[in-house]
Fold:
Amino acid sequence: MTVDLSHITVVLVRPQQPGNIGVAARAIANHGIGRLALVAPPHFDPERARWMAPKSHHVINGAHFCETVEEAIASSQWVVATTARPRTREWPVSTPEDIGKTIASTRTPTAILFGPEDSGLSNDDLRMAQHLLHFPTTAISSINLGQAVTATAASLAAAHRGNQPLIDQPSVATAPAGKRAEVVRRTVEVLGTAGYLNGRSEDMVANTLVRLAGRADMTDDEVNNLLGMVKHLSWWSTHR
Structure:
């Protein structure tokens, strides 16, 4: 059975080792995943990455380089973040096997985030995520970045073969993450102008809006309507 996971983007956030980028590219090529996005890699050596990615140079050559996570996931409708440790925020959490059945059985554009080797994803990196992918381990929670991508890709490919989704995922009409982020930015600006942010943390307010926007599964039309409302409020607050 041909595996088509072209709707999936693997996003490596600040990857530190070119070798791990190469291993990830090899897994992407082996399992038919759509593309690779690299967010601000500090020491990217394309030759070293290619050396670790035989027959997968096209993935590295076609990698999408981004300055921010928000840029990397802008066209994705569903955003999943990987983690090897517990998080204080209450995200839905699944194993690679379970979430693979959902991601691979639909055509919803999906981004899967992987953090840097030394620290994993920060809370700021996780702002736009709607779901967590957790790697069950022993008390020693240390997984190599390249291995994590390989294990995830293998789970997705295996799940592609006729499995039904086990968790809720947005419909194909859901607005991409980039549009949701624009709604959040515009809303925070209006709230600041209105004085709502006085004495409040702008980051906490923005994070709350991000979570609400992610859970709402808004369509493009709904997002456009909200943007129109917020823009009108912004105009009114400036010209009143």
